């Protein structure tokens, strides 16, 4: 059996290294693939085969992808020289990328018409979890194929869930991301109000990180706000695209979600104010500017 992995970026590299360990155990042949030659070095050091050409992966039984966005996934799978033009019925593509629900369904249908299985398996977790194999992985597609590849998925994640048919993995990830974005919007709006009305920023932040109003978002991002750190990580612009993808589904299904709509408006205010490339807690800057305050610990700007 041969297994390939395409996309060795921040998340993909760690995942691919964990998957590549299966070759040392004699379970399969492994190939790591990325257009960036430099990203292949750590795989070469481990004695694993590498390539910069996706066509070299097309003799694999299972091809795993971790790519930046829907456009690139479409290009790699459906493009003029994409995987689908080289694969044979019975092969499987497993996509860890975060793309839209409708996009995942479209790609899956194109693959199915050629006898190729496509599973959308977006991931949740930070780079450290990718490296130590403790990600959450949410999968949509053929359930029988899911159970076949689950031992490989278990090398990369500790929470590996089958969510349903094609698109179900992406829908799960979209809902999770939207819930996170709502939490970010809530503290971004309320922290500046507290500071404007005389509360200490650090003490108020401590309450929102520990009391009943706490969340993963507050615990992870408020410390960065208090130190004025708005760089690195998942930008406001990318976070907004997640909500756009969810909104497409809601429109098609005629489902009203007022809280999500309100959150999108908060993000729009921040985006229109020039904070698109800030990490998502950068939304707070819009409300700081509006109220003429800074939500910072003493000594930070």
UniProtKB/TrEMBL annotation:
Domain 3-hydroxyisobutyrate dehydrogenase-like NAD-binding: 167-286
Superkingdom of this protein's organism: Bacteria
Short name of one Pfam family: NAD_binding_11
Gene Ontology terms describing biological process: organic acid catabolic process
Listed EC numbers: 1.1.-.-
InterPro entries: 3-OH-isobutyrate_DH-rel_CS, 6-PGluconate_DH-like_C_sf, 6PGD_dom2, 6PGDH_NADP-bd, HIBADH-like_NADP-bd, HIBADH-related, NAD(P)-bd_dom_sf
Domain annotation 6-phosphogluconate dehydrogenase NADP-binding: ranges: 2-164
SUPFAM superfamilies, sorted: 6-phosphogluconate dehydrogenase C-terminal domain-like, NAD(P)-binding Rossmann-fold domains
Keyword NAD: yes
Active site: 173
Keyword terms: NAD, Oxidoreductase
GO MF entries: NAD binding; NADP binding; oxidoreductase activity
Family stated for the protein in its record: Belongs to the HIBADH-related family.
Xref: PANTHER family: 3-HYDROXYISOBUTYRATE DEHYDROGENASE-LIKE 1, MITOCHONDRIAL-RELATED
UniProt protein name: NAD(P)-dependent oxidoreductase
Organism (species): Sporosarcina thermotolerans
Lineage, uppermost ranks: Bacteria, Bacillati, Bacillota, Bacilli, Bacillales
